[in-house]
Amino acid sequence: MKTKNDKSFLRDLANAVHTELRHRHIGTPFRLKQKIKLRTTNTDGWAVPLGTFTGYQCRGELWLDRFTAHTDRQIYYCLYSYEKEGIAKLAQAVYREFGKHLSIYLKDWDDKSKDYRLAKKLAKSRFGHPIYERYPENREFFYGIYQYDATGLQKNVFKRLVERSVDFFQTIAEAVSTDTSKQDYETYQAVENRQAVSRHISRERKSHAATLCKQRDDYICQVCAFDFSKTYGTLGSDFAECHHIVPLGTNKKLRNTTIEDLITVCANCHRMLHRMDGKSEDINGLKKIIKRVQRK
Description:
The protein is an alpha+beta fold. The chain contains nine helices and ten strands.
């Protein structure tokens, strides 16, 4: 991505992400560092350790480098570890949220470059999706996502990058956490499987896919076209909710959630969708109800 000063941009981004992570009180198993500091990498860039996933021997980090072999340096929010066991467990825990990863090994590097980078440019289709780098020869393992320009990042680039980065680490932390005290089970009274409800709510409220979905739709309700920023000004900027198009309980097979499975909605439409029949046709049904009421 193009910035006037890449190093300063990463420093500012890391500070903002670190602050937001602290505000969200993610807690166990992610332990934030008290102070953050940039280090130079061998990929023609810099990295910032933000915290540690205790019990998994993994650090949560932000990188800005040229490892993708693209001309501009790219933001990479990721896990970094010297051991494969912990990072493998975390990668497995978030399979549903992030989807199938691309595996990268030493053989994929450009052995003629003075810096560590890929021999072939990372395909644009792989940006925004997980990458699992495995270098047992070097005792280094990475699991992360290179930022994706084409999905709603054009507006408020800095703020939206902060949100994506924070949600990446929060999604991982919540995937291995057993705390469900904040879940709203009342909305799903007819569903007996509490674990399924917990996963469903987590994906809708705060997950990487949910963030990409809302940024793709520019935080405008896709049912009634409500725009929080127009009604509430700065307070409503970059705010909306996310709804799972595939109804809860119909997905019995293990599958990942993509932004195509989600739709941006306002709070009112979201609640109304949850009161409906739990079918994929509910969205169009609610649109018809709104149009009918508006014509009166």
